[in-house]
Amino acid sequence: MKKLRIGILISGGGSNMHAIVKACHADDFPVEVAVVISNRPDAKGVQIAKDEGIASVVVDHKLYADRPAFEAVLNAELAKHDVEMVCNAGFMRILTEEFINNWLGKQINIHPALLPSYKGLHCHERALADGVKITGCTVHYVCLEVDAGAIIAQAAVPVLDDDDAVSLAARVLKAEHQLYPHALRMVADGRAVKVDDIVRIKSNVEASDTLHVPKL
Ligand code: GRF
After folding, report:
1. Ligand 1, closest atom to CA 173?
2. Are residues 119 and 208 in the same domain?
Protein backbone atom coordinates (compact mmCIF):
# COMPACT_ATOMS: atom_id res chain seq x y z
CA MET A 1 0.00 0.00 0.00
CA LYS A 2 1.31 3.44 -0.94
CA LYS A 3 1.30 5.41 2.31
CA LEU A 4 0.87 9.16 2.69
CA ARG A 5 4.16 10.62 3.95
CA ILE A 6 3.58 13.20 6.65
CA GLY A 7 5.83 15.60 8.53
CA ILE A 8 4.64 16.48 12.04
CA LEU A 9 5.37 19.94 13.46
CA ILE A 10 5.49 20.16 17.26
CA SER A 11 6.49 22.63 19.97
CA GLY A 12 5.92 20.76 23.22
CA GLY A 13 4.63 17.55 24.77
CA GLY A 14 4.14 15.77 21.47
CA SER A 15 1.35 13.53 22.73
CA ASN A 16 -0.70 14.01 19.55
CA MET A 17 2.38 13.26 17.49
CA HIS A 18 2.88 10.10 19.57
CA ALA A 19 -0.73 9.03 19.00
CA ILE A 20 -0.23 9.39 15.24
CA VAL A 21 3.09 7.50 15.34
CA LYS A 22 1.44 4.66 17.30
CA ALA A 23 -1.43 4.48 14.78
CA CYS A 24 1.16 4.24 12.00
CA HIS A 25 2.55 1.03 13.55
CA ALA A 26 -0.46 -0.81 12.07
CA ASP A 27 0.36 -2.21 8.63
CA ASP A 28 -3.02 -1.19 7.26
CA PHE A 29 -2.75 2.44 8.41
CA PRO A 30 -2.37 4.46 5.20
CA VAL A 31 0.05 7.02 6.65
CA GLU A 32 3.75 7.03 7.54
CA VAL A 33 5.62 9.61 9.59
CA ALA A 34 8.59 10.80 7.54
CA VAL A 35 9.90 13.34 10.04
CA VAL A 36 9.02 15.14 13.28
CA ILE A 37 10.17 18.76 13.43
CA SER A 38 10.21 20.83 16.62
CA ASN A 39 10.86 24.55 16.81
CA ARG A 40 11.90 24.10 20.46
CA PRO A 41 15.04 22.14 21.38
CA ASP A 42 13.59 21.20 24.80
CA ALA A 43 10.28 19.84 23.47
CA LYS A 44 9.46 16.51 25.13
CA GLY A 45 8.17 15.24 21.79
CA VAL A 46 11.67 15.25 20.28
CA GLN A 47 12.78 12.48 22.63
CA ILE A 48 9.52 10.57 22.08
CA ALA A 49 10.16 10.63 18.31
CA LYS A 50 13.74 9.44 18.83
CA ASP A 51 12.57 6.60 21.09
CA GLU A 52 10.09 5.61 18.39
CA GLY A 53 12.87 5.53 15.80
CA ILE A 54 11.36 8.40 13.81
CA ALA A 55 13.61 10.98 12.13
CA SER A 56 13.45 14.11 14.25
CA VAL A 57 14.85 17.56 13.64
CA VAL A 58 15.03 20.67 15.78
CA VAL A 59 14.65 23.92 13.85
CA ASP A 60 15.01 26.44 16.64
CA HIS A 61 13.16 29.58 15.53
CA LYS A 62 15.32 31.69 17.85
CA LEU A 63 18.35 31.02 15.67
CA TYR A 64 16.84 32.70 12.62
CA ALA A 65 16.55 36.40 11.87
CA ASP A 66 12.89 36.27 10.80
CA ARG A 67 10.02 33.95 9.96
CA PRO A 68 10.94 33.47 6.26
CA ALA A 69 14.47 32.39 7.25
CA PHE A 70 13.05 29.92 9.82
CA GLU A 71 10.50 28.59 7.33
CA ALA A 72 13.11 28.16 4.59
CA VAL A 73 14.83 25.62 6.86
CA LEU A 74 11.48 23.99 7.71
CA ASN A 75 10.71 23.64 4.00
CA ALA A 76 14.15 22.22 3.30
CA GLU A 77 13.67 19.55 5.97
CA LEU A 78 10.17 18.70 4.71
CA ALA A 79 11.48 18.38 1.17
CA LYS A 80 14.48 16.31 2.28
CA HIS A 81 12.10 13.79 3.88
CA ASP A 82 9.70 13.73 0.88
CA VAL A 83 6.81 15.02 2.97
CA GLU A 84 3.47 15.14 1.17
CA MET A 85 1.36 16.53 4.01
CA VAL A 86 2.25 18.67 7.03
CA CYS A 87 0.47 17.91 10.31
CA ASN A 88 0.63 20.56 13.01
CA ALA A 89 0.32 18.98 16.45
CA GLY A 90 0.68 21.51 19.23
CA PHE A 91 2.88 23.65 16.96
CA MET A 92 2.94 27.12 18.48
CA ARG A 93 4.53 29.29 15.76
CA ILE A 94 2.58 31.61 13.51
CA LEU A 95 3.33 30.75 9.89
CA THR A 96 3.73 33.25 7.05
CA GLU A 97 1.22 33.60 4.23
CA GLU A 98 3.83 32.22 1.89
CA PHE A 99 4.32 29.02 3.89
CA ILE A 100 0.57 28.52 4.30
CA ASN A 101 -0.12 29.11 0.59
CA ASN A 102 2.71 26.77 -0.35
CA TRP A 103 1.09 23.94 1.66
CA LEU A 104 -2.57 24.86 1.01
CA GLY A 105 -4.70 21.71 0.99
CA LYS A 106 -1.67 19.77 2.28
CA GLN A 107 -1.42 21.06 5.84
CA ILE A 108 -3.72 20.15 8.73
CA ASN A 109 -3.97 21.07 12.40
CA ILE A 110 -5.71 19.94 15.56
CA HIS A 111 -7.50 22.50 17.71
CA PRO A 112 -8.86 21.71 21.21
CA ALA A 113 -12.39 23.03 20.67
CA LEU A 114 -15.37 22.45 18.44
CA LEU A 115 -14.64 24.97 15.69
CA PRO A 116 -15.86 27.46 14.66
CA SER A 117 -16.37 28.03 18.40
CA TYR A 118 -13.39 29.05 20.50
CA LYS A 119 -10.77 29.76 17.87
CA GLY A 120 -7.38 30.82 19.17
CA LEU A 121 -5.88 30.50 22.63
CA HIS A 122 -7.45 29.77 26.04
CA CYS A 123 -10.39 27.90 24.55
CA HIS A 124 -11.03 25.79 27.65
CA GLU A 125 -11.19 28.84 29.91
CA ARG A 126 -13.63 30.50 27.53
CA ALA A 127 -15.80 27.38 27.20
CA LEU A 128 -16.01 27.12 31.00
CA ALA A 129 -16.86 30.81 31.34
CA ASP A 130 -19.69 30.37 28.83
CA GLY A 131 -21.01 27.30 30.67
CA VAL A 132 -21.13 25.13 27.55
CA LYS A 133 -21.98 21.50 28.27
CA ILE A 134 -20.15 20.00 25.32
CA THR A 135 -16.82 20.98 23.87
CA GLY A 136 -14.31 18.86 21.97
CA CYS A 137 -11.64 18.98 19.32
CA THR A 138 -11.36 19.56 15.60
CA VAL A 139 -8.94 18.46 12.91
CA HIS A 140 -9.01 20.97 10.06
CA TYR A 141 -7.06 22.17 7.05
CA VAL A 142 -4.82 25.16 7.62
CA CYS A 143 -5.74 28.33 5.77
CA LEU A 144 -4.69 31.97 6.08
CA GLU A 145 -7.21 32.73 8.83
CA VAL A 146 -6.28 31.10 12.17
CA ASP A 147 -8.37 27.99 13.03
CA ALA A 148 -10.77 28.67 10.15
CA GLY A 149 -9.86 26.04 7.55
CA ALA A 150 -12.13 23.27 6.28
CA ILE A 151 -13.16 20.90 9.07
CA ILE A 152 -12.17 17.25 8.55
CA ALA A 153 -13.35 15.61 11.79
CA GLN A 154 -14.57 16.55 15.24
CA ALA A 155 -15.00 14.75 18.56
CA ALA A 156 -17.39 15.85 21.29
CA VAL A 157 -16.32 15.90 24.94
CA PRO A 158 -18.59 16.61 27.90
CA VAL A 159 -17.88 19.53 30.22
CA LEU A 160 -18.42 18.42 33.81
CA ASP A 161 -19.69 20.59 36.61
CA ASP A 162 -16.47 20.52 38.62
CA ASP A 163 -14.13 20.99 35.66
CA ASP A 164 -11.39 23.56 35.61
CA ALA A 165 -9.31 24.39 32.53
CA VAL A 166 -6.73 21.74 33.46
CA SER A 167 -9.17 18.85 33.90
CA LEU A 168 -11.09 19.85 30.77
CA ALA A 169 -7.90 20.16 28.69
CA ALA A 170 -6.85 16.68 29.84
CA ARG A 171 -10.21 15.16 28.81
CA VAL A 172 -10.12 16.93 25.44
CA LEU A 173 -6.50 15.85 24.87
CA LYS A 174 -7.51 12.18 25.25
CA ALA A 175 -10.12 12.71 22.54
CA GLU A 176 -7.50 14.45 20.37
CA HIS A 177 -5.36 11.33 20.51
CA GLN A 178 -8.20 9.33 18.96
CA LEU A 179 -9.38 11.99 16.56
CA TYR A 180 -6.11 12.94 14.86
CA PRO A 181 -5.26 9.42 13.61
CA HIS A 182 -8.91 8.92 12.62
CA ALA A 183 -8.93 12.14 10.57
CA LEU A 184 -5.59 11.31 8.96
CA ARG A 185 -6.83 7.89 7.95
CA MET A 186 -9.88 9.42 6.28
CA VAL A 187 -7.76 11.96 4.40
CA ALA A 188 -5.20 9.38 3.33
CA ASP A 189 -7.68 6.74 2.15
CA GLY A 190 -9.78 9.29 0.29
CA ARG A 191 -12.89 9.16 2.46
CA ALA A 192 -12.45 12.81 3.43
CA VAL A 193 -12.18 14.99 0.36
CA LYS A 194 -11.73 18.76 0.41
CA VAL A 195 -14.04 20.41 -2.11
CA ASP A 196 -13.37 24.17 -2.10
CA ASP A 197 -13.82 25.25 1.53
CA ILE A 198 -15.69 22.17 2.77
CA VAL A 199 -14.53 18.63 3.45
CA ARG A 200 -16.97 16.03 2.15
CA ILE A 201 -17.04 12.68 3.99
CA LYS A 202 -17.91 9.49 2.15
CA SER A 203 -19.51 7.52 4.93
CA ASN A 204 -22.52 5.39 5.68
CA VAL A 205 -22.94 6.65 9.25
CA GLU A 206 -26.56 7.20 10.24
CA ALA A 207 -27.33 10.48 11.99
CA SER A 208 -28.86 8.49 14.85
CA ASP A 209 -25.47 6.84 15.48
CA THR A 210 -23.80 10.16 16.14
CA LEU A 211 -26.05 11.72 18.78
CA HIS A 212 -24.01 12.71 21.82
CA VAL A 213 -25.96 12.93 25.07
CA PRO A 214 -24.10 13.05 28.39
CA LYS A 215 -25.09 10.23 30.76
CA LEU A 216 -27.13 11.33 33.78
C1 GRF B 1 -3.14 20.03 22.19
O2 GRF B 1 -4.24 20.23 23.04
C3 GRF B 1 -3.35 20.76 20.89
O4 GRF B 1 -4.66 20.70 20.41
C5 GRF B 1 -3.02 22.16 21.32
O6 GRF B 1 -1.87 22.01 22.15
C7 GRF B 1 -1.90 20.72 22.74
C8 GRF B 1 -0.63 20.03 22.33
O9 GRF B 1 -0.45 18.83 23.00
N10 GRF B 1 -2.86 23.06 20.23
P11 GRF B 1 0.68 17.80 22.52
O12 GRF B 1 1.95 18.61 22.28
O13 GRF B 1 0.21 17.10 21.31
O14 GRF B 1 0.85 16.89 23.71
Report:
1. 2
2. yes
